[in-house]
């Protein structure tokens, strides 16, 4: 079933997003995201403790994730599609559980992370482990190099405690790895965390960034995008797990 769900797509009209998926999801027998509440607080804890089956994760990735996040898991620079490759396993599990529970305001991810589309805790653990094992893009979208020094100062002072010296994240506290993420995506999430649209934002972080000026925000996020992860793929690397995938593919632009 998941394969046919993927044919339904996001269409962009006058710069606004419309989710054609919603209507399609209902006809597919997949409950509409706004109606399907899969909140299960134990599910997240269970998924974190399970031993993942990476082979099954690869199959799930191909069936349910590849069309949007791409064969390498690198997302699309300058779009709303994040790089998820190399994200910490526990963070991916937490984010999938949060999408499911409606704590992140994204109808497409909510549908694709639903129990019907993805399965139970074991499947979450499997796909998360596969994604976490992928190397990161050497060409992520950069911000503005002009303010990198100011960005570093702000980062070291205000972000490093939680996100790590180099933006590598913290698996125990499921703080996301943010180094090497696409600049537009960082900006979008930062704004959403700040204005509460992303309801799973960290309270301390929200308080801290509340009074950021636009310039400080540009500076710190440009710096974050410029941080180099250790697990970067060599230039020209391709994920041979999906050699058959049409690489001219691009998902529709969303905002
Ligand atoms: C129809 C397109 C689509 C599909 C299919 C899809 N995603 Fe996503 N995914 C997105 C978009 C768009 C976002 C950004 C959501 C936001 O801005 O809140 C996202 C965000 C995420 C995030 C959060 C990343 C972060 O750093 O905040 C994770 C993790 C994720 N997806 C994993 C998956 C997995 C695993 C699958 C397959 C089970 C999947 N996605 C399928 C479009 C998709
Ligand atoms: C008190 C700890 C804390 C501090 C300080 C903090 N963050 Fe966060 N941040 C978090 C947590 C936890 C999350 C994930 C929230 C969730 O579960 O979705 C997060 C999420 C994010 C995200 C979204 C990442 C993604 O992949 O979705 C960005 C971007 C981010 N933080 C940037 C920053 C920057 C820049 C600073 C410094 C100005 C900062 N954070 C300070 C804890 C913190």
Structure description:
The chain is mostly helical and 255 residues long. It has 2 domains: 133 residues, Cytochrome Bc1 Complex, Chain D, domain 2; 82 residues, Cytochrome Bc1 Complex, Chain D, domain 2. It is built from 14 helices and 2 strands. It has a two-stranded antiparallel sheet with strand order 1-2. Helix 3 packs antiparallel against helix 6 and helix 3 crosses helix 9. The chain is globular, with a radius of gyration of 18 Å. The relative contact order is 0.17. The N terminus is likely disordered. The structure holds heme C (2 copies). The site of one heme C has 22 residues, from helix 11, helix 12, helix 13 and helix 14.
Radius of gyration: 18 Å
Q: Please identify, by name, the CATH architecture of the largest domain.
A: Orthogonal Bundle
* Distance between the first and last residues' Cα: 27 Å
Structural class per helix/strand content? mainly alpha
Structural domains: how many: 2
Q: What small molecules does the structure contain?
A: heme C
Total beta strands: 2
**Strand order within the widest sheet?**
1-2
> What name does the CATH topology of the largest domain carry?
Cytochrome Bc1 Complex, Chain D, domain 2
Q: How large a portion of the residues is in β-strands, by DSSP E?
A: under 5%
Helix content: 40-55%
Mean pLDDT: 84
So how many helices? 14
**H/E element string?**
HEEHHHHHHHHHHHHH
Low-confidence stretches: 1-38
Biggest sheet features: 2 strands, antiparallel
According to CATH, the homologous superfamily of the largest domain is Cytochrome c-like domain
CATH class of the largest domain: Mainly Alpha
- Which term fits the overall shape? globular
